[in-house]
């Protein structure tokens, strides 16, 4: 039986640096696949804990809506966003909050390979309909990126680019100052915090349809600021994908991912 060099390297690397479950962070076992051993991507029980978004969602931002027949969430009903529309895979609750925290602050960038696959599978058909010409990750201030070692939005966008064959462009938007953490701020404070934080590095863009990539959507302030600049550069249609989205103030998510109000 022939064993490929890449398979041997994967085995060695997994022994030295075992792949970890993106939910519980425990080392994952090898699985036999057509005669070759391949590391598992997530614990079967942990996969059931992921708060995957199901059911009706806001047509604008993709946030779950709690009222039957509602087209938009309360936020998008009362606020005009700069982007056209977007979607997210998970609600930003429970295990996803913990997982994203480990990605950002514990160096678990390898989780993004798994999550990139989830996003690619869930939204490939929709993205083909959007027909973006380029993927653009939301930028990170260079000092913060140096401290972390990577920009999670850029890594996630790279995974999607590889799977979909859509070009990735990381040099269009740049973050020109270090902003305060957004998580503790309200909408008004978030927008003030981001004002002037991004800049467009090109006077005019060669694309009309753009897909922005980020890790978490809460109020949409970050994506709005990025979309606003891209429109200045000539983009006509601006979509987004994020790993997670906030569930909104009126919705509650149980441990079994059941939505109620």
In short:
The protein has 261 residues and is α/β, with parallel strands linked by helices.
Structure description:
The chain contains 9 helices and 10 strands. It has helices spanning 5-16, 44-47, 74-78, 94-105, 111-130, 142-148, 152-164, 187-194, 221-232; strands at 30-33, 36-39, 85-91, 134-137, 173-175, 198-200, 209-217, 237-245, 252-253, 259-260. The chain has a 4-stranded parallel β-sheet with strand order 3-8-7-4, with helices on both faces. A two-stranded antiparallel ribbon has the order 1-2. β1 and β2 (36-39) form a beta hairpin. The protein starts with a helix and ends with a strand. Residues 12-76 form the Double zinc ribbon domain.
Properties at a glance:
261 residues, alpha/beta, four-stranded parallel beta sheet, two-stranded antiparallel sheet, 10 strands, globular, disordered C terminus
Number of strands: 10
Q: Decide which structural class fits the backbone.
A: alpha/beta
Which sheet architecture does the biggest sheet show? 4 strands, parallel
Globular, elongated, flat, extended or rod-shaped: what is the shape?
globular
Strand content: 15-25%
Secondary structure: helix percent = 25-40%
The DSSP helix count reads: 9
Q: Order of strands across the biggest sheet? A: 3-8-7-4
Mean pLDDT across the residues is 85
Low-confidence stretches: 250-261
The sequence of SSEs as H and E is HEEHHEHHEHHEHEEHEEE
End-to-end separation in angstroms reads 57 Å
Radius of gyration: 19 Å
């Amino acid at each position: 039986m022939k064993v490929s060099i890449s398979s041997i390297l994967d085995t060695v690397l997994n022994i030295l640096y075992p792949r970890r479950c993106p939910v519980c962070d425990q080392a994952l076992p090898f699985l036999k696949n057509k005669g070759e051993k391949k590391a598992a991507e997530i614990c079967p029980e942990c996969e059931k804990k992921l708060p995957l978004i199901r059911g009706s969602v806001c047509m604008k931002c993709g946030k779950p809506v709690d009222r039957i027949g509602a087209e938009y969430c309360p936020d998008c009903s009362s606020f005009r966003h700069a982007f056209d529309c977007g979607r997210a895979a998970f609600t930003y609750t429970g295990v996803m909050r913990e997982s994203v925290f480990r990605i950002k602050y514990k160096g678990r960038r390898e989780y993004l390979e798994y999550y990139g696959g989830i996003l690619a599978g869930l939204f490939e058909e929709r993205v083909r309909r959007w027909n973006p010409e380029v993927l653009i990750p939301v930028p990170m201030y260079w000092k913060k990126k140096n401290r972390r070692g990577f920009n999670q939005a850029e890594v996630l966008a790279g995974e999607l680019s590889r799977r979909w064959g859509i070009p990735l462009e990381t040099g269009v938007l740049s973050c020109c100052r270090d902003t305060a953490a957004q998580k503790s701020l309200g909408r008004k404070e978030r927008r003030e915090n981001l004002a002037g934080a991004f800049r467009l590095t090109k006077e005019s863009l060669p694309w009309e349809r753009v897909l922005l990539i980020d890790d978490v959507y809460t109020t949409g302030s970050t994506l709005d600021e990025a979309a606003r600049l891209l429109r200045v550069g000539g983009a006509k249609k601006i979509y987004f994908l994020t790993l997670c989205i906030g569930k909104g103030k009126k919705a509650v998510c149980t441990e079994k991912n059941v939505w109620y109000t």
